[in-house]
Structure formats: structure tokens, C-alpha cells
Amino acid sequence: MSNPGLLITLEGVDGGGKTTQASLLVEDLEAAGHEVVRLREPGGTRLSEKLRLLVLDPQYEEMCDECELLLYEAARAQLVHQIIRPALERGAVIVCDRFFDSTYAYQAGGRGLPRDLVKTANDLGRCGIVPNATLVFDIDPKEALTRATHEGADRLESEGMEFQQRVRDEYLRLAREEPDRVHIVDAIGTVEVVHARVREALRGVVSL
Fold this sequence. Notes:
alpha/beta
């Protein structure tokens, strides 16, 4: 990307601690003097948040895989045009909870859609934007699912353990294919220990 800003994305199966670590990372970045924009996917704009409600609502069990894929891409395209690109152009650091790697992991890995199809959809939805760094919080799917569903499960969390394992496997595959961008962060340990791993993974990417 030629933009002066940075896009850092946080990935992994639900229950891996992304939300907590995103908050700590934002605090570090702000303390270092950066303008920080914190986002989540799907979401971040009025339209994208409405699409989030649709795609995660357990009542829509009839939703087909292709419909799910396209809803994610629509939400992403709106977020890029409305929030991400303007923030990058003015030099902000964006911390985004999920981006197009989630689509690879969940729709190609979890759902089993063809990878080429998902890549083509991602190319449309990302509107030319690629993260500068992606952190994948890796955790055993069984433990992650227990954490994520202790207060109830959304439509994707309800898919069960085998689905979550396929998602994890796809994230690990992505990290092997793009080691310069995609970094695995061991999500097991105290919040402080995992945060130290985040800081180390971002060494050379952004000043903290």
C-alpha cells in the first residue's frame, strides 16, 4: 500500500483473546503518539453493523455459504471506502478485529468453499487494501469455543468443534504461505504474557 498509515489486523478463532489484546495494543499505540482507529469486522459503519447482525444471527440457519460470503464482502467494502482508506490516507494506525483473512479461514476453511472463489470475492471486498501486519491468536479450538460460548453462541460459533478446527488449520496455512505479513501469536498464557508476544510480533512494523 502507498498510504502513509498502517493497518494491523487481529485474527483467530473466537475465544482467542483478540478483543482484550486489541484494547491493550490501542493503548500502546496512543501512548506512542499515534492517531489510532479501532474497528471490527463485520462492522465499523452503520451499514456494515446491520450486515453483521444478519450474518451472525442464529435464526438465519437457512443462509447458504455463498450468501454468507457475499454479506461479509459487502460489509468490508463499505468499511474500506468509508473508514479505512480515509484513515490510512491521513496517516492513522488502524487496529481491526478481523479482515479478509477471516473470510479465508471461515468460508474456505470452515465452510469448504473453493479457495479461488473466496480469493476473488476478497479481492472485490478489500478494495485494494492489504494489512501491513496480521496477528493470528492461536489457541486449541476446544478451549477457545468454551471461552467464546459461555454466554451463548452466534451462528458461526454454533457450528461446533470440527468447524472450528478447520478454521484454525486454515489460519495456520495462511501463516505458512505469507510469513512476512501473517504472524502466529500463542494465545495461551496471562493477558500480560500474550501482550508481550504481540509487542514482539509488531517489532519493526510500528513504534510502540
